[in-house]
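In this section we walk through a basic example: taking a raw amino acid sequence and producing a predicted 3D structure, encoded as discrete structure tokens. The instruction is simple. Fold the sequence below.
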Amino acid sequence: MLHAKRIGSALVCAAGLLFVEWCAGADVASTTDAKSAKAAAAPAAKPVKKLTPEQEALRDRVRATLATQQKPLFNTQQNSAAEIINCCLAFGCNSEVQLDGDDGKPINGITCLCWNYPCAGREMLGFDRKHIAARVGYGYQQYPGEFLATLALSRVPATYPVRSGRNTRTVADLVEAEKLGCRAGEDLSLKLIGLAFYVDEPQWKNDLGETWSIERMIREEMAQPVVTASEGGLNRLMGLSYAVDRRVKRGQPVDGQYQRAKKFTTDFQEFALQLQNSDGSWGPYFLAARSAGGDPSNQLRSSGRILEWLVYSLPASKLEDARVMRAVDYVNGLLSSDRFQWGTPSLSTREITAVGHALHALQIYDSRVFRPADVAVAVTQD
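The resulting token sequence is shown next.
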């Protein structure tokens, strides 16, 4: 038994080493965006603008926080799948956790979840409607579709293996389970992210024989409340923005429900910026009302979630807006405080969730604003 366990651990570690390379080409394989392919074939153009001294200073602070936060590793003995999901949200295919009983050796966080290693004594993946599916509830994913959404945001390919018991299938099996479980009137926000990334067919049937599509999911989501929804409605706004973004990246027209969703989220972007406090924060009531103060955990929870959605969904031209930069600096300051800088794996699940989304916001901003300037430096030096 011990020998078999060691072999299994060696295999998962080997898979973890290959995982980043596996994910690297996932977005290319999953999109039919002709414009992206044309741009990739064209010579790289020199950026038209470099970072200002203020932006360079912010970049250095943000990257220092990201590097510090990645050092304390989550572990499968102490941390639940819900907590490790948020680690994977923050660092994507570069996330690492320690596998209980494997001498503390790190493995890839997404590999750990996909291969269904027990986390805090619970296996997240089981069977539903003859497909491998992620359980919802205490110790598992916190919301329906959350795990698949995390895989989509990390661009994990549909061919990556998942396990439940002795059964080994692929992420595509998780996708089928989520498609079958679509229900009118239910929260589809995170499920929408996952299916918008993985589903290619225009329509499918759920297990009741009802016809579903990404457009129907958008229509259902837009019929639901935002500011009074769980997590301040940010899951819903993120799902709608992601569906529109995937449509654009696939080179398809933004019409019908996609056009409605684009206008809806654009209006909410300006509304969110109007509710922002002068220090760059948003209060614990999210988008329901302007508010300030309160516990740092609540401030990080609301400000991090709103910032995550904004830096993902705003056009590039607005990312250098002073209000957005203040928000990035504010969230970064909270994450670099003594409360959150060290020992993140030991925080409560609620706080880990807040940290995960805030770190994801910083990662997105780094990739959209700071990394292109890194390319600018490299081109100039060449």
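Looking at the output, two observations stand out. The chain has three domains: 1-26+79-180, 182-274, 278-366. The first strand starts at residue 74 and ends at 75. In the next section we compare this with other chains.
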